[in-house]
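Render this sequence as a predicted structure.
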Amino acid sequence: MKTELYPLVFEPILKDRIWGGIKLQSLLNKEIPTPTTGESWEISTVSGDVSLVANGVYSGLSINELISKYPTAILGTKVEKQFGIVFPLLFKFLDAKEDLSIQVHPNDELAKKRHNSFGKTEMWYVVQADENARIIVGFKEKSSPEEYLGHLKDKTLTTILKEIQVQQGDMFLLETGTIHAIGSGIVIAEIQQTSDITYRVYDWDRVDASGHSRELHIDLALDAINYDTVQAQKNYKKIPNKSNPAVQCSYFTTNFIPLDGNIVFKKNKESFTVLMCTEGEFELVSHDATIVFKKGQTVLIPAIISDFELRGKATLLEIYL
């Protein structure tokens, strides 16, 4: 079957959040519906939030419909063999005007057993950070369920958690079980397994406009938490016009591309490639077709498009399996 596939962009799925702000519009050019828009889901197959194509002849079709029609051509041989016609990753931009809750995500085994879902290994790339902005990632020292619960009860949980000040370009891999929170004043590009399972353990005692606090999942989180210390931050090179390895785990690979000119790719058709543009703009040239992408856009390059070129001046994250 002949396929006429091309680099795909999807309609952002915008989410109002109690901690959200306006930077998805001011920094990343999203048409936000509220001044507390916290998330832009760029590519999603989460039930109820399935992405629709925004460009070209497939505009309006869902990503699931396209993958059903062209599974190998879009996903790639390796991805299709592992996941069938399930798209395994979820891509987001987040604007944390306020602190997010302290939370944890279950591993594959727990998530499958409890929710019939993937677990949620994720990574963060800091797109922008205000002065003194910080994140919480893991424990300062090895802890235990008893110590953790005691501090949670006394509202002193943050005293045993590790805070890290962040700046633009910082990158973190959060394995499942890592207790964490994004602090206020940070915009993040997030890459994760296709899962929306979050166990919230502390939400800073805040309430919404109606005076309601958000649900906590303290019991569910207890055996999902990794009580050891973690080293989540990733160091990586920033050589121009190259794919600089940054994060590699069993769920995805992420490279950092400082584009200043051009770079030619020859892929093996085993996996799709996703590019997230966090600065600047670039042209993607494939099969004599040229498409322009700008800061704040995310593009899915089907696996069948194995040869392509990027031209321009931009900061990109390159993700594949």
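Summary. The CA atoms of residues 260 and 313 lie 4 Å apart. The domain at 13-222 is CATH 2.60.120.10 (Jelly Rolls).
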